[in-house]
């Protein structure tokens, strides 16, 4: 009996040391049945596992020592959440993942939403508090899967110099320096310096599916103010900004041009969105998801709108809504 008890104890200990995870994804209806869902690593973009959606659900099972931030890709949509040892439930209808760290993420997100909804704050104050919220969230969670996500998003949310990023890495866990998104933030810092306001445009070219090549210089620096919108069909804020651009175009007519650059997107999805939203200005579309334009301009999030002067000088970048409208009115005087 002692031997059996001893063996049972060992098995229990081994089970308790297991770092296995099981992610169960549920969908609101059967529209995704038969599709392949992909579990990807948020930092690297690598596909870790795939599963077929059946009966409005799919599951992923694997191992994760400390957990990691992941993305589920299915049906042209993406959902971010944390994979951690144990059971993780992802409800697509509610847009909610359930597990200890995901619960913590949700609570923090609700706090940040209160900031966004606070009408007593200016936009600048709201953005500053959100940045501080990211920083504190990282500092409080350095040693779990939330930490790398919050740290990288803090780097991407604010325009840090490369030296400033290196300084922050001195107090971060050593493995943070190896994150691809940290390197991306450092590259963005270098490119932001090259493409800052007052600098001439940096050209790029994109090969279309018909074999033709489009360059930024085909549209910019041609003697007319040009507003260039870097966007994607799946990006809600991008889609929300397009009607505002259409209104500006209707107001000013031929006084300025608009060019779209479809980035981080499937070309077919881009064309579908253009038709849905009645986008009539030219849009540069590649044969696959474009990364080079955003890399060259140090763009860390979309939509990102740049106003180029008649000679191709960068007059402003990163403005949206009323701020963009006011700046356009200023440069068109």
Describe, in plain words, how this protein is organized in 3D.
There is one protein chain. The chain has 333 residues and is of the alpha+beta class. Helices cover 39% and strands 23% of the residues. The protein is built from 10 helices and 15 strands. The chain has helices at residues 2-17, 100-117, 123-140, 146-157, 162-169, 180-194, 236-252, 267-276, 292-296, 321-331, and strands at residues 20-26, 36-41, 47-52, 57-63, 68-74, 77-83, 86-91, 96-98, 205-207, 213-215, 226-231, 257-262, 283-284, 304-308, 314-317.
Question: Which structural class matches the secondary elements?
Answer: alpha+beta
Q: What's the story with the biggest beta sheet?
A: 5 strands, mixed
Query: Span between N and C termini?
Result: 92 Å
Low-confidence stretches: 1-17
**What is the helix content?**
25-40%
Question: Helical element count?
Answer: 10
Number of strands: 15
Please indicate the percent range of residues in DSSP E strands (runs of 2 or more). Answer: 15-25%
Shape: globular
- Roughly what is the average pLDDT, rounded to an integer? 92
Strand order of the largest sheet: 13-12-11-14-15
Rg, Å, rounded: 23 Å
Taken in chain order, the helices and strands follow as: HEEEEEEEEHHHHHEEEHEHEHEEH
List the helices and strands and how they pair.
Layout: H1 2-17, E1 20-26, E2 36-41, E3 47-52, E4 57-63, E5 68-74, E6 77-83, E7 86-91, E8 96-98, H2 100-117, H3 123-140, H4 146-157, H5 162-169, H6 180-194, E9 205-207, E10 213-215, E11 226-231, H7 236-252, E12 257-262, H8 267-276, E13 283-284, H9 292-296, E14 304-308, E15 314-317, H10 321-331
Parallel strand pairs: 1-7, 11-12, 12-13
Antiparallel strand pairs: 1-4, 2-3, 2-5, 5-6, 7-8, 9-10, 11-14, 14-15
Helix pairs in contact: 2-3, 3-4
């Amino acid at each position: 009996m002692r031997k059996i008890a001893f063996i049972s104890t060992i098995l229990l200990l081994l089970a308790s040391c297991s770092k296995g995870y099981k992610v169960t994804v549920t969908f609101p209806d059967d529209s995704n049945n038969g599709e392949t869902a992909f579990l990807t690593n948020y930092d690297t973009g690598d596909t870790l596992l795939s599963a077929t959606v059946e009966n409005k659900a799919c599951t992923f099972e694997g191992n994760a020592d400390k957990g990691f931030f992941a993305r589920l890709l299915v049906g042209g949509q993406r959902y971010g959440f944390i994979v951690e040892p144990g059971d993780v439930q992802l409800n697509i209808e509610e847009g909610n993942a359930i597990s200890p760290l995901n619960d913590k993420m949700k609570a923090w997100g609700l706090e940040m939403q209160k900031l966004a909804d606070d009408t007593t704050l200016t936009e600048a104050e709201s953005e500053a508090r959100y940045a501080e919220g990211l920083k504190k969230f990282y500092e409080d969670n350095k040693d779990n899967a939330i930490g790398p996500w919050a740290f990288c998003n803090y780097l991407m949310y604010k325009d840090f110099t490369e030296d400033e990023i290196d300084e922050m890495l001195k107090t971060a866990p050593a493995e943070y320096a190896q994150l691809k998104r940290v390197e991306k933030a450092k590259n963005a810092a270098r490119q932001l310096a090259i493409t800052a306001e007052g600098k001439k445009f940096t050209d790029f070219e994109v090969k279309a599916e018909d074999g033709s090549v489009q360059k930024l210089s085909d549209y910019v620096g041609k003697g007319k103010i040009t507003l260039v919108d870097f966007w994607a069909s799946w990006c809600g804020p991008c889609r929300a900004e397009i009607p505002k651009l259409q209104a500006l175009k209707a107001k000013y007519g031929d006084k300025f041009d608009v060019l779209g650059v479809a980035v981080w997107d499937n070309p077919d999805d881009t064309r579908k969105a253009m038709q849905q939203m009645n986008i009539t200005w030219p849009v540069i579309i590649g044969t696959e998801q474009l990364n080079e334009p955003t890399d060259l301009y140090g763009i860390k999030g979309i939509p990102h709108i740049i106003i180029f002067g008649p000679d191709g000088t960068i007059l402003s970048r990163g403005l949206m809504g009323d701020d963009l409208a006011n700046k356009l009115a200023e440069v068109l005087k």
